[in-house]
Amino acid sequence: MSNRKKLVERRKDKRFQVKEGALAVLRPHPAKLGQIIDISRGGLAFTYIAGEGKPTGSFELEIFFSDNGFHLDKIQFETVSDFEIREVPFSSITMRRCGVRFGELTDNQVSQLEHFLRSYTLDNL
C-alpha cells in the first residue's frame, strides 16, 4: 500500500488555455506583465520575467488581448502562488509563474470575462 497522497483538484471552475496574445498586468509599481497560461471564471495563471524589488501597496489586475484592444481592468484579486520556473535553457533570465484568484467582480467585469472566455480561449465555451 502506498503512502503517497492522491492529488485533489481544488479549483471549482474549469480552466481554459488562452490564445497567444493574452496578457495580464499586476499594478502598481513595480508592475508585473506576463503571458496568460490559463484562465477560469475564478482566476488565472501567467508567466512573467522576474524583476528586482517586491511590489508594495494595493494591487489591481488587468487582462488584455494584444491584437484587438480587449481590455478588462481594475480586477481585485488574491495571489495564490508565485514561484520560479525553469523554462529558458541556457539563459540568465529568471521566469516566474503567478496564480491569482479573482476577488468580487462587478456585473460589467463578469460580462467582459465571459466574453474573453468565449473569444480568446482555445477551449471555447
Tell me what you see in this structure:
With 125 residues, this protein is mostly beta strands. It has one domain (16-117): Thrombin, subunit H. It is 10% helix and 42% strand. The chain contains 1 helix and 8 strands; from the N terminus they run ββββββββα. Strands 1, 2, 3, 4, 5, 6, 7 and 8 form an 8-stranded antiparallel sheet that branches.
Task: Based on the model shown, name its key terms.
single chain; mainly beta; Thrombin, subunit H; eight-stranded antiparallel beta sheet; globular
Fraction in beta strands = 35-45%
Structural class: mainly beta
Question: In this structure, how is the largest beta sheet organized?
Answer: 8 strands, antiparallel
Shape: globular
Mean pLDDT: 83
Segments where pLDDT lies below 50 for 5+ residues? 1-9
Helix content: 10-25%
